[in-house]
Amino acid sequence: MKRFAKYALLTLAVTFVGFSLGFWYAQHSMGDGAAIFSQTLALSQYETLADLQYKQADTAHGTQAQLDLVNFMNLLEARQKIALPREFDYDRGRALMRLALLAEQAGNDPAFQKYLHDAQDSLDDADKKWYSEKAMRTFVTVADARSKY
Amino acid sequence: MCAVIVLGLALGFGVGFATSVVRTTLDLPFLANPDSTRDNFTSVFRAMNRLAAAEMTAASCGGRRGDPLPVEEYAIRAIQERSPAAGLNPPLDVARATLAVRRAMLAEKNGNSQLKTQYEETAQQLLQKSGWKDPSPDHLREILRRMDMEGQTCSAGAAKEGQSK
Most buried of the four, A59, A103, B38, B140, by CB within 10 Å? Predict the structure, then answer.
């Protein structure tokens, strides 16, 4: 009887250890994939709507949409661990540089300088490199030329 | 003794792995109900996931694998309800106009020209409100065609099936 109880207890203990290991392993393999998938999905949809506005609408609506996109990204970063940080910083840098160009179009130089600096900051986070104003302009021009809308 | 340890570990690992997989799957934002959370940002995030998934289905398979348009409508409504409290203001009229144009395309396919015109008028009004330089539904339709072609993720069989219809 004592021997049986010993084995039962041992089985229970190793099953618990196995459960924890299995749970942890799945969490680290599948959980990370799920985070990448869901963040990519939500961000791409938000960006599509904001970028459509940037390309198709007037300056006021375009600016509003890009500002909201940056706000969404900042809130996301504050609440979740960003699964693909480099791509995330690139996307934010592009949105900020678009805001800079919209401010320039509107003749708002202080806003242009601020957004340009923020965009350079975001790309610095991504690449650990400070891009010039000219490089930032090219960055957005190339992205805009590739866009399907 | 060794057999008990190995068997217990294997059994536990399997059950633990399966539990985590089921939990992760149920927690996937596009499957989780946006209304089931009190947190406004999480709700918007989940609804945006749903909208993206439905848009992908509508774009790549033309809605032949179930009708994704009611899902889009539900997601847009969920975002509208929770985004102000989350401090967000996404351009939802563009999403609504996209939905209206997709519905107009469906009505056209079904030969219902009256319904098609109705949806196109809705789309035009929404795009005008959104400040579009060219708010015509044809313009948005052309953009959607280019975007759908780029994001073609439907299987070759389903794509052919769609072309033949």
Answer: B140
